[in-house]
Design brief:
about 200 residues; alpha+beta; Jelly Rolls; about 25% helix; globular
Amino acid sequence: MGDNDVQGFWDDGYCRIDDLISPQQCRLIRNAMELSRDRGQMRVADNRAYRGPHNQYAPLIGQLLLGSLAPRLSERAGRTLLPSFAFWRIYRKGDVLNRHKDRKSCEVSVTIAVAAEPEDQAWPICLKDLHGREHAVALAPGSGVLYQGTRVEHWREPLAGEAHFQMFLHYVVEGGPHAARALDGGISRVPELYGKP
């Protein structure tokens, strides 16, 4: 990866990263999400960006992934990214993600496709880059989009498939204007495995 790739991320506001997590990790995460939902640990959302999907803040597997992927994502961004929090969501047919930008704890985020029903039906995430151009990025399971959450407007059109499983990892830039929001301002906890492969 060259300096142009890093500069492109900051100039455009986003970049695609394939194969962030393995097929085995995707299966594990999907199973954990379904178990969490079935045990009542996920809540049904009703806020400005999304209504209906099952969501969970800082699930343990997500927090571990948040730490373990930080070095790779920091390299891709060309800056040290400090973990803020993980979040996962199960969308159902007809669910949408309204156009929005993220809060300060989500200065740099990655959204990772985990699984879909039917399996071959990708559900694009739409973004408006920092030049005002709109993009729809379809992701295979395990791939993601790294984006500047506080600056890049993003959304999803209604889900045509039966279900979609998504993982979100949020970071702030070390020494940046939102660095005090690391660990979501002290609310989130990242296990001691942070930074270790």
